[in-house]
Amino acid sequence: MSPLPTERSLSTTPEGLMWEPSERWVRGRKGDVTVVDSRHPVLVWEPDLPVPQYAFPRADVREDLLRPAKNPHIGTHTGSQVFYDLEADGELVANAAWTFAADDLAGHIAFEWFRRSGRGLDHWYEEEEEIFIHPRDPHKRVDAMTSSRHVQIEIDGLLVADTRRPVLLFETGLPTRYYIPPEDVRLDLLVPTDHHTGCPYKGTAQYWSWHGGADVPPNLVWSYPEPLPAVGPVQGLLAFFNEAVDITVDGERLERPVTPFSAMLRPRSPRGPAPA
Q1: Range 5-131 classified under CATH 2.40.340.10
Q2: What is the largest CA-CA distance in the chain?
């Protein structure tokens, strides 16, 4: 019997890093300058990070644009060894790249992703598709499925959504999200905000806050007006954070899950978390 893909390809270093080769063609740009162009990237998972990142063979990196970091962020990444500042497109970006001390990853350089860390390269591409926030995890699934389940959502005891035509979004490691047609939502109780977030699996989300009197987190509701093709069925539908509302599905009240978003869902926080 052939081994499973994860058994065949995933390796672990003594430092606790997991890594595997990727067959995707990956490019990274700073402004108009291509800094990385690799057909042999490596996906790396750090112990304390839930998402992967890429490391690239040195031959695929414009090392002439890298300078030893003036103020290296030692300890920022597991087993990080050497940090680099990036000088490209007329701008100097501090600590934009680094190397791992792991022997398995010797000869590779990793880069920060701008829209995740606020520094690094501006645009990343897998094949011809631009990727946001972080690389997609090949061991994670995201499925959007139409359903006829009866979904009701309450905030502070008030029914704000009631539908029998939701789209259920199943994402590995997260609770099921219930996307509801706007016609089945009390939109008069929601106020649009200027908050937006990006997701490498779903696209860019827009938000609404609760207009009622309950002390609930802002940016509680989100929607993808132009989702990525893989989750096309959620287009224009609204989802609520399970962690902060009461959801009943086919007459059964669901427990509020505890997720990485729970700690960020603070009432009256100035910014909402990224949606799942």
Answers
A1: no
A2: 62
